[in-house]
Amino acid sequence: MTTTSTSATSSQILHHTATFVSEALSQSEIRRRLFSILRRKLTLSPPPSHDPTALIKPLNLAAETLDNAITSTSSTVRSSSLRLIENLLLSHPENSVSSLLLSLTYGLWRRPVDAALSLLDVFRLDPSSARSEIAPSLFEELFLIHLLPVLRELNDRRSKILSISTTSPPPNNNNLFTNTFYDDDDDYSINDEMGAVPSTKSLSKMSDEQASELKILETEYEEVVDENCRVLAKYLKEVLENEDKGDNINRLTFHPPLTIMQTSQALDDHRGFNEDRPMRTEQLSRISVNGRRPRHVERNRNMALFESRQSQTQKPEQPGLAESSCSPDNVIGKQTPPKDFVCPITSNVFNDPVTLETGQTYERRAIQEWLDRGNDTCPITRQELQNTQLPKTNYVLKRLIGSWQELNPDLVAAVNHSENLCIGIDQVVNSNSDMMPSNSPNSVISQATIEGTVSELRHAISNLCTSEILKESETAVLRIERFWQEANMEHDIQIMLSKPPVVNGFVEILFNSVDSKVLRATIFLLSELGSRDKAVIQTLTQVDSDVECIAALLRKGLTEAIVLIYLLRTSILDLTKLDLVDSLLMAINNKERDLFNMCVKPKTAAVILLGQVFESCDETTAASVVNSMVSGKEIESVVDCLGAESSEERIATVGILVKCMQVDGKCRNIIADKAELAPVLESLMGPNDGERFEMINFLSELVKLNRRTFNDQILHIIKDEGPLSTMHALLVYLQTAPDDQCPTVAGLLLQLDLLTEPRKMSIYREEAIDTLISCLRNTEFPGVQLAAAETIMSLQGSFTTSGKSLTRATLLKRAGLDKSYNNLVRIDQLSSFSAEAEESLKEEEKAAENWERKMASVLVSHEFGLLFEALSEGLRSTDSELCSTCFISATWLVDMLKTLPDTGVRGAARVCLLKRFASIFKSSRNTEEKILSLLALSSFIQEPGEWRIWTSFTHFISSWGIKDLWSHKQLVQVDCSENGEVLSLVSFKDKIFSGHSDGTIKVWTGKGSILHLIQEIREHTKAVTSLTILPAAEKLYSGSLDRTSRVWSISDKAIHCIQVHDMKDQVLSLVISNTVYCFIPHGSGVKVHSGNGSSKLLNGSKHVKCLALVQGKLYCGCQDNSIQEIDLATETVGTIQIGSRKLLGKASPVHALQIYGKILSTSDYNIVGSLVTTLEVRVMAISSELIYLGCKKGSVEIWNREKLNRIDTLQTGSNCRVLCMALDSTEEVLVFGTSDGQIQAWGLS
């Protein structure tokens, strides 16, 4: 056997481990058997202070996920699952099961080295199971060959116990003495080694004492083999790790130091071994690989162990390697570096020598570390140093050393080689020596190449720091960048470049250069240095102007500067002051490939910095940034970052998106449509609690869409598409989450549980509702109480486009008040003119009703109405916000009792809430609160016998009339009689526009109870008869008797005319649709005027009095009481109401025409209702609940829109005509103008 055959190489290790992993991955039965063995042993012998159940549960979860990943055909799902398993197991206490799972995971992930390392960990953690049950073949191939001295000693010890002539070894099918590890024909069969002991002797011929000694021997042998398995596993891992890192360690013949059964002559000489004394592992363990004994002792012992075997089988190899030891003399003979060239502290040849005032010379880093520890004396002479500031490098000595190294290149290589042999493998890998490592220690040419590179690099650094010529400095930067990219010496170059003068030289380039290539190279180098050495960051942040310069370069388009600012971010007090938002958004949206492979991707850095900006900015700035993101579509690029590998980037992305949804809820639909939720769901299983809650909060915000069906789709994705059980992860997190996070987590968990029909029992549902009730009762933390109350209220499931709960507005709508609901719901959700949209709306309503029913059912039935008791306590709170939220939640749940089966919880609700609702109804001055409390009270009188509960407060209800619901009071009256009649009014946002008979247009703003005139314009020469607004374009259109129509811009503070159209006829009334103007001329018919100046007359047989334009159809109210519908596209005319002319007297012209709400069909024009009034109606305004009729004799009638009954009449105080009306956007202020020049505003109180 050769030396190399006894010392496994990395390729051999990888071959054998890959064979085992491949076989386990391909056969599920093998995996189940292996997991079962290790789980059973882990359960019986858990690590100290660990609960076996808590250890096994995540391991079972990981095993299940691994099986899913193996069978999955999707590469994305497989990659996500494997990453999740890795994160889960690395956060779990190390044990043999987790190591085996990691090995199989890495094998499936095509990471053979990691798979082998984890598999070797199984032998290290549980060697007995690993060699006998888990991987016996792997033990044979990699381990047993090293244990031959141990087995030989075992044979000798057995021979001494058993007399060959009288005894034989006891048969034991399970012990390790039989041919378990080798086949009969193996060259190194254990039976061959133990041939002196016949195997045909019976157990009956053995004495009791011999049997006892053999049993003890077996036990001790097991212990020694286990100990050696651990040692060998560590050794094999070192071989793999060093090979993976590119070291040449494995080319040498290293042997693992072993704990053995020592009877060989070599060991007898050292320790005087007593053959009759039983061996003990603890006595021998001091020789094991634990770092307590110098490596040369271990290596010499190892050589002694294998001496007899190698003397027979080893072929002659390199003498230098076979006889190598740690003594430099064995390598280089009597040739050693001159004493003056060696540092007395490090014992290495000087690289940067400095001579102290005492005359002693040391390596700079070594003496600096000595001084940093608080010493102020010379290490050798112990003289006190007057100056602890190190002097400059001793270049005279450095040149002498360089000359000596040039004359003795072989000696230098040999010294380096011997140093590598004298230190441990880990020290070789992690060495931080300042000596330049050669590409090949034995190659003089390679050493000369490195010396030349270093010389060029030093010259470039000198030019950078000292040259007065900008071009030379720029050239130096490009050369340094090239060295960094090509020389493969980043660590050594880093030491040279990290010094403050060099860093300041780079900064000078940033200030002075205008070459983008040079600037990018400089930023790249500073970023790489800063990511490796914090001292560089400190140097850059010492001067504020340096940071400002880098920020200015970023604003000018140097995207790479983002990475450097990212590295400086902890030292920058306020990122918002640097005005980087636009640059960050541009970098996030950048699709071009990065020019440099930087330590952090610019897009990643931009996302993290943007997240930091959101954390530190005020609400106004945040709103501005969100608007920019939505308008520029950068938000879609941010959404793509949810799948980033960096957890910091994912957390920043989630924080940004949550802020966007909170500031501008309309972007919630964009995020829901574009987001890939798999990485977010994967992060729920991560070890970082802060990251997990960020993801949970994001998901909770995401399911507040204004479409119930969309919400259900997102919830199904969250529940089903996670790599592991999302609900289980939420439940586990909920049990340990801080109080302020519990309502959010519980709310999301409850929604996921309700995706299917509620079951009788669900641990997820029970835990979630219990948590919400507990938080609602937690009076020590009012913020937690309010969060729980808001979560319960939002579970109703209806939201606006901005994500606000519609629970209150929905309840008011059920009580008959549509105004609040319609104000909150998008107009396109209410106004739909297509059959498809109408069908979709019905589907939405059905889904919303189903969700609300299921949610209310599980809430009210939990613990027989326990939630009602908690809400009742909240209604007594002195916190008005908490009390109001609990009131809405209680009203909703009590109102839902009408539709739910009566299981007895209505009685619990009555006991807890009846008196509270009655009290609110009696004492509240808020009309909506009275209505909601009345709605709740009505739920308690569903049964005839329950009418008795009304007797105590029926007189309060009877005294509260319908006028109290829609009470109006006059806010202000303005006299504009000097401008003549007020002919037209229109409202937009917070402004009111009025047109007068003298051609004046006035602009008003309503603040408090006063109308403030902010602008007055008179560009029309005759009466302004009509004003109309296109909200999307923010333009005001005016029509006048001067035969013109003017277009006004109203987006600024003051309005101004931007266009004038010659209408060729007087404009009595005007309506607009895009570029089409429809107006009533002085004569008959209606004129349609297009943007190109052409016009045509339609419906010429009728004298039109009023117009309305909706969806390309024009509706005309005529003098003869008829109403026509004109399709502008086809110019066809249809009749809605046939006119009539009285034989005697005047006809009844249609003076006012309004279209409100949605039109389902225009095929049937039958009248569905009418308002009977004795007054002549001149103008009309409609809100979601009321109809206002402006009449001839100075009065305004108010009618209920649903019941068509008159509620009240407002009096203007004169006998004039009401000519125009307008409602503000909230429908709470009515403004009308009269024929005597008065403008009045009335408020709905």
From TrEMBL:
U-box domain: from which residue to which, for each copy? 336-411
Q: Spell out the coiled coil positions from the record.
A: 834-861
Enzyme's top EC category = transferase
Reactions the enzyme catalyzes: S-ubiquitinyl-[E2 ubiquitin-conjugating enzyme]-L-cysteine + [acceptor protein]-L-lysine = [E2 ubiquitin-conjugating enzyme]-L-cysteine + N(6)-ubiquitinyl-[acceptor protein]-L-lysine
Q: Could you tell me the keywords of this UniProt record?
A: Coiled coil, Transferase, WD repeat
Question: Which biological pathway?
Answer: Protein modification; protein ubiquitination
WD repeat copies, ranges: 1017-1051, 1211-1245
Which superkingdom, per the lineage? Eukaryota
Show the PANTHER family listed in the entry. Answer: RING-TYPE E3 UBIQUITIN TRANSFERASE (PTHR47446)
- Protein name per the record: RING-type E3 ubiquitin transferase
User: What is the originating organism of this protein?
Assistant: Cannabis sativa
The taxonomy runs: Eukaryota, Viridiplantae, Streptophyta, Embryophyta, Tracheophyta
